[in-house]
Design brief:
single chain; 205 residues; mainly alpha; Arc Repressor Mutant, subunit A; 2 domains; three-stranded antiparallel beta sheet; 6% strand
Length: 205
């Protein structure tokens, strides 16, 4: 999909990653989920433990900003973040248990990854940061395609682009250009060749 006005306006209003970045509670949501899931490399956590960790976080924030800053309890926030309206957490049940589990959605991972680029050291150029933003928007747009055939076509096209980029890197012809260096750095940060391969296998499987 092209990053035209209509597409971006739709993403702004409906995509979970963009909703997270626009949320008044984005600092709480992103910092808490980053610490619990991303930094700790955790995939899935039971509701009771996650709610207890969130309560500890909320207690500290209320001490700083007042009791009215975050009025709901931890479990209410988790359920809200997992709602269809938000889509920042995935709520599910493991077989044989009646206790809910929570995990990050891919949209939340993308939003947190982009936020991480904003705190990088200053030697990262403005162009590279803008390209990172455009890459996030491209991923949102690509991920919103529900037609399997079109999605597979997009993934094959992306794989061909990565193959071509790898060939240019191996040839060494373009490494002298700073703009190319920034582009390659972006590809290393935001695109994992194996993830594209796995997505194609999943779509065609």
């Amino acid at each position: 999909m092209a990053l035209d006005y209509a597409t971006l306006d739709t993403l702004r209003n409906h995509h979970p990653a963009w909703k997270l970045l626009r949320s008044d509670h984005a600092p709480l949501v992103a910092s808490f989920l980053h610490r619990v899931f991303v930094s700790s490399n955790v995939r899935g956590m039971n509701a009771a433990d996650l709610a207890e960790m969130l309560e500890d976080k909320l207690y500290g924030l209320r001490q700083r900003f007042g009791d009215t800053a975050f009025p709901k309890n931890g479990m209410d926030y988790l359920n809200d973040w997992a709602s269809t309206e938000k889509g920042w957490l995935r709520k599910y049940y493991r077989q044989g248990t009646d206790e809910p589990q929570f995990d990050l959605t891919s949209a939340t991972e993308k939003a947190i990854a982009w936020l991480g680029t904003l705190t990088e050291r200053s030697f990262v150029g403005t162009e590279s940061r803008l390209m990172t933003l455009f890459e996030l928007l491209r991923q949102m747009s690509a991920g919103s395609e529900i037609d399997p055939a079109k999605r597979i076509t997009e993934l094959h096209k992306r794989r061909e682009e990565i193959d071509a980029e790898i060939a240019r890197v191996l040839s060494g012809d373009e490494l002298r250009d700073n703009r190319i260096r920034n582009h390659l750095r972006l590809e290393q940060e935001m695109i994992d060749y194996s993830l594209v391969e796995a997505a194609i296998v999943e779509e065609t499987g």
